[in-house]
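Take a look at my tokenised protein here and describe the backbone shape.
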Amino acid sequence: MRSYRSFFFLPLAIALMLALAAPGQAQSFTLEQAMSSPFPSELIVSRRGDRVAWVFYAQGKRNIWIAEAPMFASRQLTHMDTEDGQDVTAPVFSPNGSSIAFVRGGNKNQTGEVANPTSDVAGAKQEVWVVDVRSGRTTRIGEGNSPLFSPSSEEVEYLREGHIWAAPIGGGKERKLFEARGNVTSPEWSPDGSELAFSSARGDHAFVTIYNPRSAHLRFLAPTIDRDIAPRWSVDGKRIAFIRLPSVADSFGADRERVQPWAIWVVDAHSGNGKEIWHSSNADNDSFFGGFGGNDVWQWVAGDRLLFMSERDGWAHIYSISAEGGAITALTPGEFEVENVAVSGDKSFAIIATNKNDIDRRHLWKVNVAGGTPQQITTGEGIEMYPVVINGDRQIALLHSTARDPFMPFIASADGSNMKPLAAQALPRDFPSAQLVVPEQVIFKAADGLEIHGQLFKPKNASGKLPAIVFMHGGPMREMLLGWHYRDYYHNSYAENQYLVSRGYMVLSVNYRSGIGYGRAFRLAPHRGARGASEYQDIVAGAKYLQSRDDVDKKRIGLWGGSYGGYLTALGLARNSDIFAAGVDFHGVHDWSQRVAGLVVPTDTAERNRVARESSPISAVDKWRSPVLLIHGDDDRNVEFSQTVNLVRRLRASGVEFEQIIYPDEIHELLLHQDWLRAYHATADFFDKHLK
């Protein structure tokens, strides 16, 4: 009898186990696992090239790591083990490589408050700290940002409220270096350490200024009514190169950016006598362009040349020119964009991160600063960014990812060979690389015929018609790639998209017009944003691409995004609830006619204000039918919290279903790991509720 009962219940038990396991098979890993990898940033190298350091953001804790020659074995240097939401930025080595200065805490908002996402009753400060690379001992220096060391390495300078301050690296009384009108920017010591150059910003003009500590004297180099910025010392310390931005009356229009002509000047560091060695044209493409961020491009290089970036041919490229003037040399011609630049120790070559020959990834190339054909040094399906040249120019350190492997620090030979991880031990053992999917590159056309790139994430072993989600990055000067992203915000977004796929959704990430990677004309597309929302047609095209697929249920398509992606999410729900059945809007712009802190919006005339409003989600709330989840921190410094407050008032009046997650004291890029987890869990649950 016992054997019969066992035989009878065994199939039933197996069937029950399979039924219970079925949902779990679709979700092969947790969100916590997908977001467990430490995110590296701020990769720096010591002057001698024998040490590299970076910041690791590991599940809410931010610390500096270091690796040293000859083996470059990495170790954690600081031990800030509490998730307090205080960012760690701007690390810099002392000239002798024995110390690293860095900043803890973010910038102040308009009311003078440093971000305090834990609502600590003691408040929060932005402070400069120094860590000893041998002992790991950390010392608080003082309130401020933008640290740099004195040439002797015994003192650290930093900026606070427009002035430059200094204190001993071991801590002690701080002092203001000098009193001067204007705000100090771009301070840089001369090669011999005797003088400090900086730009004195004074509203509508700026002077390149030299401070001599011995004489306690300031002198101004070739002052005019224009804005002179970014002074750079020559190797011998006798000359200063700087960028001059002429004061012009041109203003940006309804469909064009303000054109800013610019020029390169080289002057004698003592007398200020010198000359303009090059100037831009008045064409739109030749407007001043400082790059997309990352490593410093503007600097002196070998052969008494200067290196700079421009979009004069419609793409972001680097150029060099003799300090005596003459023709400029295009170092990276072609239809691709240069994003990072790292110059070798001897200043003879640069390693660049670019999408040359692989437009939806980034690889490293070597470029001679005097000209010549660039040489590719990394290839394949990875993404390589933020290189630094180390160890006597024989090796490079970089940050690298693939579709399955998160962004991490690596080291390689200067030719790109022998690449290996610098901190493999920092990646949790249960990180789900093997369970992640590899996104496919897809290209589709918008209604006006423009080609749009996207990344399609398909669930493994899926069958039948799937619910689908369109994702939009923020910025809009961003680009999602065919792998883990090199910015922490979008590294998180990539993790969430992989998590949604694991729950049975097909996800399409859309690189809409006004993003980077596809040239200046694409980035500055006509009628974008407040000028007419032309990029919205790219989102609709993405949804129609999904609807055209046999494996997608066209009635179960949602969308989500943050910031500018939040704007496009709300716009999709407002204009096309017939296409988008639900959406999740992270801190989006909802009314372009109101002030938006992070973006310049042309609303200076009644007509432009009307267009801005018509380009906004609030203009179509009367057609909004689909449910939305709104997520916003009330200390957002990029998109005012009032944007969500005002939208909710209209949604309530129209009877639109909405949910909200509000984070008191959080900023735009959520500072607490736990807040990202809560928001992303809520996003997945919201889509499960409305699309399944």
